[in-house]
From TrEMBL:
It comes from Kozakia baliensis. This is Uncharacterized protein. The keyword Transferase does not apply. Keywords: Cell inner membrane, Cell membrane, Membrane, Transmembrane, Transmembrane helix, Transport. It is found in: Cell inner membrane. GO terms for cellular component: plasma membrane. GO terms for biological process: protein secretion.
Length: 713
């Protein structure tokens, strides 16, 4: 027993020995005769492995998780053919092929030779003509399309790497995944030829066994013709079916894998059920058709009525509405009664607050009931949580947890991003459509139809593609997003744009308290010099311009250094920005650590200085309306024609605006008021290791007379 445990432990540590043993056993079965008991064991192993492979394929999340399948097909096919040789030898020499073959033959034949031959013919036809031939065609086409799409996918990976969307490790992983996918399709295309040949060999083997067995039984064993036909037909059909059924299971396994290319990260059952149950209208129409079929004379009514009820319940109907409809109650009266019981201040028919909410939510998402029915709420919540985690990691602050509310227009798939219960942006989505996140030219090359709509993910018009083309988009390597991802994208942008509102006195204290554990003396000195109220304003101004607070040590040290010399929060912010110049420049530099910049001309800066007004509430920029429009037009023209713009309207590196320290915050405020999200840096914000490459000048081109008039104004 101890020696046996040592043997199994050694085998478990050397999995390669198992394959070697299988191959050696296969060679032995081709040459040496085996007893019927060992044949039963090998037949059971063959059937078990086929069932295991089928279950693995069903629960497979991606074809790349089973790249060893072509090799498994080869080994199992050769093993099965060697096993058929062994069983054929047993049938012809001893008329005894083991218990499994005999039992299977008696069970299938049922005392009738013709029935056995017909069943075998049907199984072989299904495997050879339907499953194997179809799988072979799918694998062939998949391999061809995968090879054709490889250059485009490689270019997409290189483009993402150059733009900084992915790092070297992610690019390497994607290239390896692409190479594995191509190799899998090519190998499957070749491996399925073995399955096809196995089916042909099965037909030949059954003819040989029948003719040879009857001849040996009558000529050598002296059996009557009827007894010889019954005996050898039973064994032959049993052998053929017990070998063809594992081959059929292996063909189905290969078919599932090659048709699962471009899976959605879920197993086949969930994937199929999710897509079949996604369209509620289709389920309801199918239930109506089944009800009509139940009315046909002669059809089993309980069967069709049960299926109709199942389809209708699967469409997740609004039972409350149906109950009111059956009772002939006016839905408007029901809505009026519900709104009467609503809290004061809530709009009728529009749920603006979730049950249990007492205080105003800083940031929330409101979706209409129609959109709520079409969305996967769990996926939307996960994407919103990921967006919060990304912004928190990037800016070094604690963001509010996302709230999802249902309300608004019942008949439109709309959503809004609400800041303090006030919508800051609203968008309309399209059901059963995807949002293109790629160059529209790629759609034309792939022959996929798209429809332009209002901008959603950027400044360019949104291209909507029907969800039925999702598989073709994946195969062509074209980027896209679903509605949940689009909502999360807008939510992420809203969080970044209004992140300054997430920092108040309490949040500033919490940031300082988190830093106190590591920088206790520094925190105490900084809070002594800079009051918490001023510290909160400084942190808020930094976050409003997407300056991360993760380097809290440098921020506090700068405040300790300048806090007693400068009491104005805006100027303290400029000193902090100067201390964080390397961090700020890294954010806007390209891969060569170069910053593309538009420089504000000196005459324009002088005009801006003259337009600054000092008041007890603080300084503000008071530009003449004509001059304001002229400056706005100049900035828009520069950024529209900036180099590095691709056909999709995106830039690999966003240019910045560079100006003097005293005018920087006024230029930034001017852009913010005009809904322009361009970074503005002062000359003091530029670090030495990040060279600036001027690509243009922003100038008003104002004459001396106009400047004098502005100064007099």
């Amino acid at each position: 027993m101890k020696n046996l445990s040592v043997f199994f432990r050694a085998v478990s540590q050397r999995q390669d020995l198992a394959l070697v043993m299988v191959l050696m056993l296969t060679i032995g079965m081709l040459i040496l005769p085996l007893p019927a008991v060992l044949a039963d064991i090998l037949i059971g192993c063959n059937l078990s492995i086929s069932v295991l492979l089928l279950m693995v394929a069903v629960y497979l999340r991606s074809p790349l998780d089973l790249t060893a399948l072509p090799g498994m097909i080869l080994v199992s096919t050769v093993f099965r053919l060697a096993l058929e040789v062994t069983v054929t030898r047993l049938i012809l020499t001893t008329a005894d092929a083991g218990t499994i073959v005999e039992t299977f033959g008696e069970f299938v034949i049922g005392g009738n030779i013709v029935v056995g031959l017909v069943v075998f013919a049907i199984v072989t036809t299904v495997q050879f003509i339907v499953v194997t031939k179809g799988t072979e065609r799918v694998a062939e086409v998949g391999a061809r399309f995968t090879l054709d799409a490889m250059p485009g996918k490689q270019m997409s990976i290189d483009s993402d790497l150059r733009s900084g969307d992915i790092d070297q490790a992610e690019a390497r992983r994607r290239r390896q995944e692409l190479a594995s996918e191509s190799a899998l399709h090519g190998a499957m295309d070749g491996a399925l030829k073995f399955v096809k040949g196995d089916a042909i060999a099965g037909l030949i083997i059954i003819v040989v066994n029948l003719v040879g067995g009857i001849a040996i039984g009558t000529a050598q064993r002296g059996m009557p013709v009827g007894q010889a036909m019954h005996t050898y037909t039973l064994l032959t059909v049993g052998d053929a079916l017990i070998s063809q059924i594992p081959a059929l299971l292996l063909s189905i396994t290969a078919a599932i894998v090659v048709t699962r290319v471009g899976g959605h990260g879920t197993d086949l059952g969930r994937d199929m059920a999710g897509q079949l149950m996604a369209n509620r209208g289709a389920l309801r129409i199918a239930s109506v058709l089944l009800l009509i079929m139940a009315l046909i004379p002669g059809f089993p009514k309980p069967v069709f009525l049960g299926l109709a009820a199942l389809f209708f319940c699967g469409s997740r109907p609004n039972w409350k509405y149906l109950r009111n409809l059956i009772l002939r109650r006016d839905t408007n009266e029901v809505t009026e009664a519900d709104n009467t019981n609503a809290p004061p201040g809530m709009a009728r028919g529009n749920s603006t607050s979730q049950s249990g909410e007492i205080f105003t939510s800083l940031l929330s998402v409101t979706i209409t009931p129609l959109l709520d029915q079409a969305l996967d709420r769990g996926r939307l919540e996960r994407l919103l949580s990921l967006a919060v985690a990304e912004v928190e990691s990037d800016l070094g602050i604690r963001c509010p947890r996302p709230h999802i509310r249902v309300g608004g227009n019942v008949g439109a798939p709309r959503f809004s991003i609400d800041l303090e219960d006030v919508p800051i942006e609203e968008h309309t989505l399209r059901l059963n459509h995807l949002v293109l996140q790629d160059d529209p030219m790629h759609l034309d090359l792939a022959g996929i139809d798209g429809e332009a709509g209002l901008p959603l993910l950027g400044r360019e018009p949104t291209i909507w593609v029907a969800t039925t083309a999702e598989g073709r988009l994946k195969t062509a390597g074209i980027g896209y997003s679903d509605n949940a991802a689009a909502i999360a994208f807008r939510f992420r942008l809203a969080m970044r744009r209004h992140a300054g509102r997430f920092i108040g006195l309490q949040e500033a204290r919490q940031i300082v308290q988190r830093a106190e554990g590591e920088y206790g003396d520094l925190v105490r000195e900084a809070t002594r010099i800079v009051p918490t109220q001023r510290l909160a304003e400084i942190l808020r101004r930094l976050v409003e311009e997407e300056v991360s607070l993760r380097n809290i040590r440098m921020i506090l040290e700068t405040l300790v250094e300048w806090g007693e010399k400068e009491t104005r929060a805006p100027m303290l912010v400029e000193h902090v920005r100067q201390a964080l110049s390397r961090q700020i420049c890294h954010r806007y530099a390209n891969q060569q650590k170069t910053i593309l910049a538009f420089v504000v001309a000196q005459d324009t800066e002088q005009t801006l200085r003259q337009a600054v007004r000092e008041t007890p509430a603080g300084a503000f920029l008071a530009l003449d309306p004509d001059m304001s429009q002229q400056l706005l037009g100049a900035i828009k023209e520069r950024f529209t024609n900036a180099p590095g713009v691709n056909s999709g309207g995106n830039r690999e590196t966003q240019p910045i605006i560079v100006c003097s320290l005293d005018t920087r915050r006024f230029v930034r405020g001017f852009l913010t008021r005009n809904s322009l999200d361009y970074a503005v840096l002062s000359y003091q914000d530029l670090a030495e290791e990040f060279p600036v490459h001027p690509i243009g000048t922003i100038s008003l081109g104002i004459s001396a007379n106009v400047q004098a008039a502005a100064q007099k104004h």
